[in-house]
Amino acid sequence: MDSVPIVKEIPVLDLGQAQGKERAVVARQILKALEEYGFFQIINHGVPQVLMDEAMKVCQEFFNLPMEEKVHYAKETETLYTSNPKHYVSEEHQYWKEVLEHNCNIDGEDQNTWPSNPPKYREVIGQYSFEVRKLSKIILDLVAEGLGLEAGFFGKEHGQRMFVNHYPVCPDPSLTLGTGGHCDPNLITISQQQVYGLQILKNEEWIGLEPLPHAFVVNFGLPITVISNGKLTSVAHRAVTNTTQSRTAIGIQLSKKRMKRETRTATPPEDTGETPVDRRCLLRRERLATNGSGISTGESLVPIQMVLELTGH
């Protein structure tokens, strides 16, 4: 795998400024970041640093559990642990990661499916997911304002799901990927990362994003193309491994519906309708899947009707 530059220009936005007179400025900064990179980091976001540290700790403790305990959750319907490459399959790369994923909706009904070990997992992740949900509303409102949409455009009823990707130390990263190149099908993803490994696709080349301590990385999924009438797009990204330290990334994704694992991807219908927005969404995925940038050629596309359902429109 070729060397990828770490780019310092990927925007870092101070969300604290959105509480005052600079709100419109922050909204414009978010849109510019999405137009230029599709990703940005946020600081002064309101989620306590202690809570972020605790969330990362309990997730790492889970992955340090004995394998026989972790595989118990591979049999659950609402909580999934896996250490195989079922998320992104490719003939070109081997994948080097473990995944824990589960719903974390605001009603709390999902918590009884979460891991009971580590002992503090449910308590900490319950608080964490609540705080990140509040943060997501702030960001969504700012994006709506920046696009000139009515207040509350994105609504309040979003399904919320957490994905924790753990990438162990890899003896030869040149032979593996952590996660293959892909665009997210959900509305927004807010992720916490401590160790470098995230790469995004810009101008047909991969560039690296260096995570800041206690910052969140934000990106939008395919629905933003429809919502913005093509002004914004979902940007492909992937994760790489390293030889010196393990890496754990906590991502919380929101969609209009309560999220179910089996609805993350879908095969497009034979007749796409070929309206301008339909083709833009589908052709972007086709181009990304075949441009030789390490994105699986077998990746499923997300049809336009699914995008509209995810946005509630």
From TrEMBL:
Pfam families: 2OG-FeII_Oxy, DIOX_N. Residues 158-256 form the Fe2OG dioxygenase domain. Residues 256-276 are annotated as: Disordered. It comes from the Eukaryota. InterPro entries: DIOX_N (IPR026992), IPNS-like_FE2OG_OXY (IPR044861), IPNS-like_sf (IPR027443), Oxoglu/Fe-dep_dioxygenase_dom (IPR005123), Plant_2OG-oxidoreductases (IPR050295). The keyword Iron applies. Keywords: Iron, Metal-binding, Oxidoreductase, Vitamin C. Belongs to the iron/ascorbate-dependent oxidoreductase family. This is Fe2OG dioxygenase domain-containing protein.
